[in-house]
Design brief:
Shape of chain A: globular
Helix content of chain B: over 70%
Radius of gyration of chain B: 30 Å
Strand content of chain B: 5-15%
Number of helices of chain B: 10
Largest sheet of chain B: 4 strands, antiparallel
Structural class of chain A: alpha/beta
Largest sheet of chain A: 6 strands, mixed
Shape of chain B: elongated
Number of strands of chain A: 10
Distance between the termini of chain A: 27 Å
Order of helices and strands of chain A: EEEHEEHEHHHEHEHEE
Oligomer: heterodimer
Strand content of chain A: 25-35%
Number of strands of chain B: 4
Radius of gyration of chain A: 17 Å
Order of helices and strands of chain B: HHEHEHHEHEHHHH
Structural class of chain B: alpha+beta
Number of helices of chain A: 7
Strand order of the largest sheet of chain B: 2-3-1-4
């Protein structure tokens, strides 16, 4: 599903984010990316949906070398990849259901499909009753659920999550992790960057640890350490 | 990827309303620049050209006789004109007819018209040559200067030349002004769209990440620019139509001036209107396309 082959990423300011990283992630896996700030976790994730291009090496997603695909094919690639942010990135002037529907409108889905899919996904994330609320009227955990609903409504093959629990308290974090686990059980590959030791240690999934742009550990059913 | 019309209408409408002041300012500058272009085309191009066509069809030169010229001298000149193979036609204005024309020209200004009497009026021949070429007309006209009883020969075509030169210069300046204003319109539309893109940057970021194509994101902004240009074009067309009505209505006050010759047909008014609307759309599309190209790169 995902393969990084000797990937190096150097930004324009000459900061070296990744130094020859290689890894393979199979379909349906749940992978934690751990490591200190600046270790390259976010760059790793941003390479997977072509927000960034590798300076050297190859990034393969669903059989395509996405480092070299032309710009106009990037949109198609991203429809197979959901993205969850630490700061939710919800649109304040839209209701919960409009935020989710917006993701489907933006890729040109027909109205009847939107009318069917949005209530289903809000049911899945437990926010059916708050469909008409604005993001400002929700708690942090609920806002992150909306963000996950938006990322998953198109049933992507891969879900990328960059510190999705970074702004949440421990009890809310558990709810979000349960939701991501549930999504993973539908066959969706989940790659999640995190600093949260407790959730990594609790879930015992595969752990890839980065340090100064290099993979220093790749462990099945690993812990944070 | 098909774009839904209700989505397009909603997004474009939101963009237009969100920065209403800038939207109105953009429409106004497009209106001003296109109105100027309309005036330039109608008055400076069609009007001027039609005025020259009218002048070319008029008398090409006038031979003024001395007021004291004898009837024999007048008859001799009339014979010369009639025999000349280069003269197409001529009209003879005797002293009575000349005085009537003079009185008509200075109607209401008795302090001028009262200074002269019929006997002061020089009789004249208004001559239309077969060949309208200025050089040929000049040689032909000058050949009548030395004839007995001739006071002077006037060239209306010569008289109009400074006016023509001034009008052409004015037209050049107007065209340059229009170019500057059209460029300003494009820049303002660029800024308006840039502002709209900036105020919607969060939505755009989300759209890109969920897999919206750049064209899908761009189209509402381009439609916004086109609407701004179109409204400017339509308003300019309205002002150009008002100019047409006003110009025709003021003909009475322009009697006996060169400006009465500045006319244009209904067809020319229509084609100018279509050009203004089309240009408004093009300016809007161009400004917004460049803005989205700049800010929504792959």
């Amino acid at each position: 599903m995902i393969k990084l082959d000797n990937v190096k990423k150097i930004y324009k300011n000459e900061h070296v984010a990744l130094r020859g990283v290689s890894a393979e992630i199979d379909k349906g896996e749940f992978v934690f990316l751990v490591g200190p700030s600046g270790s390259g976790k976010s760059t790793f994730i941003r390479l997977l949906n072509r927000e960034e291009k590798p300076t050297e090496g190859e990034v393969w997603v669903a059989g395509k070398n996405i480092g070299i695909i032309p710009g106009y094919k990037v949109a198609q690639l991203r429809r197979n990849i959901g993205y969850v942010f630490q700061d939710y990135k919800l649109l304040a002037n839209k209701s919960v259901e409009e935020n989710v529907a917006f993701a489907l409108e933006a890729i040109g889905r027909p109205r009847h499909a939107i009318r069917t899919q949005v209530p289903q996904i809000l049911e899945l994330v437990g926010l059916a009753e708050k469909a008409k609320n604005r993001p400002a009227e929700l708690s942090g955990g609920e806002q992150q659920r909306v963000s996950i609903a938006r990322a998953f409504v198109n049933r992507p093959l891969i879900l990328l999550a960059d510190e999705p629990t970074g702004n949440l308290d421990p009890s809310t974090t558990v709810g979000i992790m349960k939701l991501l686990d549930r999504i993973n059980r539908t066959g969706t590959t989940v790659v999640m960057a995190t600093h949260d030791r407790s959730i990594v240690d609790t879930m015992r999934k595969r752990v890839i640890e980065l340090e100064a742009g290099e993979i220093v550990r790749d462990q099945d059913r690993g812990v944070y350490e | 990827m098909a774009i839904r019309l209700d989505y397009l209408a909603r997004e474009t409408g939101q963009n237009l309303v969100r920065n209403l002041l800038l939207t109105v300012a953009t429409m106004l500058i497009v209106t001003v620049s296109l109105t100027m272009l309309g005036v330039t085309i109608l008055l400076g191009y069609y009007g001027l050209n039609n005025a020259f066509v009218a002048y070319n069809q008029d008398v090409s030169f006038i031979v003024y006789m001395e007021p004291t010229a004898s009837q024999d001298q007048i008859n001799a000149l009339a014979r010369d004109l009639k025999r000349s193979p280069q003269v197409d036609d001529y009209d003879y204005y005797d002293q009575k007819k000349s005085f009537e024309l003079f009185k008509k020209m200075f109607q209401g200004t008795e302090e001028v018209s009262g200074l002269l009497t019929q006997s002061d009026m020089p009789p004249s021949f208004r001559v239309k040559p077969k060949n309208a070429d200025a050089a040929v007309v000049t040689v032909l006209a000058r050949s009548y200067s030395p004839k007995p009883g001739v006071m002077k020969v006037d060239f209306p075509a010569e008289a109009i030349k400074p006016v023509q030169a001034a009008a052409l210069q004015l037209r050049t300046w107007l065209v340059m002004g229009v170019i500057v204003l059209l460029a300003a319109s494009i820049v303002l539309i660029f800024i308006a769209i840039q502002t709209a893109v900036f105020s919607r940057r969060r939505e755009i970021e989300v759209m890109r990440l969920v897999g919206a194509t750049n064209w899908f994101i761009r189209i509402p902004f381009i439609v916004e620019g086109v609407i701004e240009g179109l409204v400017g074009g339509l308003l300019a067309t309205g002002f150009a139509a008002l100019l047409g009505v006003g110009w025709k209505g003021s003909k009475g006050t322009l009697d006996n001036t060169l400006l009465t010759k500045f006319t244009w047909t209904a067809g020319q008014q229509t084609s100018t209107s279509l050009l203004l609307i089309g240009l408004g759309v093009v300016v809007g599309a161009l400004g917004s396309f460049v803005a989205t190209l700049w800010y929504l790169r792959d």
